[in-house]
Design a protein that fits this description.
GO terms for molecular function: L-serine ammonia-lyase activity; threonine deaminase activity. By secondary structure, the protein is of the alpha/beta class. The protein is built from 17 helices and 14 strands. The chain folds into 3 domains: about 220 residues, Rossmann fold, CATH 3.40.50; about 90 residues, Rossmann fold (3-Layer(aba) Sandwich); about 80 residues, Alpha-Beta Plaits (2-Layer Sandwich).
Length: about 425
């Protein structure tokens, strides 16, 4: 394993970054979660970077990077590309430093993120349909105009800025032994790993650092296995904040040397984690910020042989489009057995639908939507198809409803969650 001193970012870099950031960031709280602690069998704490200024940790790295620019570089302005959090971080930092900022964002970016970036004073240009396309255009603009390109994760100052979260966490929770966080390009994971691993070494103890990726946007596991950067062919996840198809070169060096493991979680687990954080911890967190909680809920620590008494999850951001939140909540409820959608064929005669309604009512489920049709290629003459959405109290209750319908001769088929796939 490489030593910290041989890596592109050191503990001294991170401590210096913390001094730079002192006037402009908030010390975000660390909250204990009783529900997650009971479920995991370890004390679980949440580092709430979703409460940071601009709604995520990204302002840390952006401000450190831009504060070191020369007067001539500041005069030329900065350019960046992002689907949201990095855009807002760069825009906020530029506003504090009096620097002109141009931000490229993909067409179709969430309106709240677009509006917030503009509200910080940045010039926003919509380009391409993916972050990679926006990044390429931002780099082209930098080459053409001399503006300084502020990369979202692949720069030592960015990594050092993000690493300040690790210093804060260790002071707020000295007994922490395991820390989980989401991974896109790897700037956050790399910076926090340097801070925690070196501080732990100085204290004569160990702290495990775990990265978490969405399974449909997981470039780190194959890259670590190959010991080389392996780009993904496609990236498709509700966690847009970590939807990165290729690890950063500098973060990869650090993650390879210091991080204990990188695990993946499903889209359903992400949705359930967001619902749990909202419902039980009263925290609004975007899917990318909830991946660490999703890993705990899928029992990934035990599955990977990781023992922990005091576990912390970095909730990296809370910038979520309300429309996406609505879809994710529906999916999370469905994944948790609290929202059931079924489809059935019925004879087209009086009383058939009333029987279905009676069974559902007697099963103490609540119908929220019903679709009734006589037309369709799979329907026989004299049949109708109905689709019913209903609220249930969990998987056992859902199974009871299904069994009660089957007991009276109906053949319910479970379909996707209401509203369709949100991935």
């Amino acid at each position: 394993m490489s030593t910290v001193q041989q890596l592109p970012v050191t503990l001294e870099d991170i401590e210096a970054a913390r001094k730079v950031l002192a006037p402009i960031i908030s010390l975000t709280p660390v909250e204990h979660s009783r529900m997650l602690s009971r479920q995991v069998g370890s004390e679980v704490y949440l580092k709430c970077e979703n409460m940071q200024r601009a709604g995520s940790f990204k302002v840390r790295g952006a401000y450190v990077r831009m504060s070191k620019l020369s007067d001539a570089e500041k005069a030329r302005g900065v350019v960046a590309a992002s689907a949201g959090n990095h855009a807002q971080g760069v825009a906020q930092a530029a506003s504090h430093l009096g620097i002109k900022a141009r931000i490229y964002m993909p067409v179709g970016v969430a309106l709240p993120k677009l509006t917030a970036t503009r509200d910080h004073g940045a010039d926003v240009v919509l380009h391409g349909t993916t972050v990679d396309e926006a990044l390429a255009e931002a780099q082209r603009y930098a080459d053409e105009t001399g503006a300084v390109f502020v990369h979202p994760f692949d720069h030592p100052d960015i990594i050092a800025g993000q690493g300040t979260i690790g210093l804060e966490l260790l002071e707020q929770l000295p007994e922490v032994d395991t820390v989980l966080m989401g991974v896109g390009g790897g700037g956050l994971l790399a910076g926090v790993a340097v801070a925690l691993k070196e501080k732990a070494r100085q204290l004569g103890r160990q702290i495990k650092v775990i990265g978490v990726q969405a399974e449909n946007a997981a470039a780190y596991p194959p890259s670590l296995a190959a010991d080389a950067l392996v780009p993904l062919d496609t990236v498709h996840t509700i966690a847009d904040g970590i939807a990165v198809g290729r690890p950063g070169q500098l973060p990869f060096q650090i993650v390879k040397a210091l991080v204990d493991d990188v695990v993946t979680v499903s889209e359903d687990a992400l949705a359930q984690a967001l619902v749990v954080l909202l419902e039980r911890n009263k925290l609004v967190v975007e899917p990318a910020g909830a991946v660490g909680v999703a890993a705990l809920m899928e029992n990934l620590l035990a599955k990977h042989g990781i023992e922990s008494k005091n576990c912390a999850v970095i909730l990296s951001g809370g910038n979520i489009d309300p429309l996406l939140m609505l879809k994710v909540i529906q999916r999370g409820l469905a994944a948790g057995g609290r929202y059931l959608t079924i489809r059935m064929m019925l004879p087209d005669r009086p009383g058939a639908l009333a029987s279905i309604s009676r069974i559902i009512a007697e099963s103490d489920a609540n119908v929220t939507r019903l679709d009734h049709t006589r037309i369709g290629g799979a329907l026989s003459m004299g049949d109708v198809a109905i689709t019913i959405d209903m609220e249930t109290r969990g998987h056992e209750h859902s199974e009871m409803v299904l069994n009660n319908l089957r007991a009276e001769g109906f053949e319910p088929v479970i379909t996707s969650s209401a509203g369709g796939s949100v991935a």
